[in-house]
Predict the structure.
Amino acid sequence: MSNYKVVTLNYRCWILIYIALALFAQVSISYGAGRLLVWPKKEGITQTTSSASLKSYEVRKGQIVLTRDILPKRVSAEEHQTGHPPSKGDSVSLNLFPDVTHEVKVNSVKRYKDGTMIISGKLKDHKNSTVVMTMGNEGFLMTIQDMNRAMLYRVRGNSADGSGSVTEIDMKKMPPVIR
């Protein structure tokens, strides 16, 4: 064989190996991550750039979708049945923006008679970062504190279809709160 054929053969072989490794890496990453609960809407992933619509401490806003299987199911007015919420010790993934994904370890799940559920947890590999998710029949709220990046994420949405909005807030620019 000439050197050209060996190089071409090796080039094709390397491409095949690269594709196989990328495929295996994608599969292993998806199995290692927690269950995906939140992801950006396709049309809502662009960063808000209008300074008139953002407060001085807000970085950007976007649209998200929450998986419907953890939202309270609307069977009847008297029966409040919940889907498959995460349990204590589970890991879940929150993909708030295309470049912001958080892995959350669930610390507690509380269910109430009216169908409301509160899930609290901590961000993995963070000491003081907290996550609180409140889901009811009318809507849902989430607060995610990323203390490593000094960012706060506020999520709110509609429990009927799982659609919502997320606001990224720079905690260094937030005004002090007086209570």
User: Anything to note?
Assistant: Residues 3-32 form the longest helix (30 residues). Residues 63 and 116 are 23 Å apart (CA to CA).
